[in-house]
């Protein structure tokens, strides 16, 4: 019997399909047998496994119940369904969950892996109010933030380097308590043994080598993945010839940014209202 080869690196949908097939194979079930247990057809299972059909919330929850996987498939399916995300970002998230080193530069808002639940909720509630997102999409996005943060608590721990533009600290999101808790979260993050946090002050001026958000991953095999975005477009890049210059710019940014000790002191000052 010929079986289509699955490439989990291709997309979140492909990664979901590969995991579903692997779990089914582990139990020795055919697609028809799994479909019967889930209340759908074997052809439906085939379509999801090969990425021709996206897993709905109901489908993924049913698969978790039948396969005894807790909520793993349901959580993974969220990335597949997050159609409001910019192109390339769902795939980036699948790489981030396996990276040995994570480097982030963010402008204007806190990066998802550092957002408190209250901060993430406030951001997404405003998006719904503006009509830029539906309530369902906002819920999916908040869940994706939580999933990304949980994925960082793996063994071994990834090294995480974060440079925040000063605007991330000064832009109010939510009420004062929300911002205070978010700043406290940054201080806690900086104290971890596998992290570095720096602030790119406005005073850097034209010495700043980057002006837009940039994420760079070093995978376990030392290959590089980058994700860069503008207001309307995201770009995932896995060609080292394209990523290495971005990594060089990131190192230059780190060299010019405020040290971690000075950055943490600045955050303490902001919490006290004395900056």
N-to-C order of helices and strands? HHHHHHEHHEHHEEEEHH
Anisotropy-based shape: globular
Residue runs with pLDDT of under 50 for 5 or more positions: none
The secondary structure category is alpha/beta
CATH topology of the largest domain: Endonuclease, Chain A
Amount of beta strand:
5-15%
Cα radius of gyration in angstroms: 20 Å
Summed over residues and divided by their number, the pLDDT gives a mean of: 90
Number of beta-strand segments: 6
| Helix proportion | 40-55%
CATH architecture of the largest domain: 2-Layer Sandwich
Question: Which oligomeric form is depicted?
Answer: single chain
The termini sit apart by 68 Å
The fourth-level CATH homologous superfamily of the largest domain is Endonuclease Chain A
Largest sheet, strands/sense/barrel: 6 strands, mixed
Main sheet strand line-up: 3-2-1-4-5-6
The first-level CATH class of the largest domain is given as: Alpha Beta
Number of domains: 2
Discrete helix count: 12
Description:
This protein has 275 residues and is α/β, with parallel strands linked by helices. The chain has two domains: 12-81, Orthogonal Bundle (434 Repressor (Amino-terminal Domain)), CATH 1.10.260.40; 89-114 and 150-272, Endonuclease, Chain A. The protein has helices at residues 12-26, 31-38, 42-49, 57-67, 72-81, 89-96, 117-130, 135-151, 166-170, 176-190, 240-256, 260-272, and strands at residues 101-106, 159-165, 195-200, 214-218, 224-229, 234-237. A six-stranded mixed β-sheet has the order 3-2-1-4-5-6, with helices on both faces. Helix 2 (31-38) crosses helix 3, helix 5 packs across helix 8 (135-151) and helix 10 runs antiparallel to helix 12 (260-272). The longest helix has 17 residues, at 135-151. The chain is globular, with a radius of gyration of 20 Å.
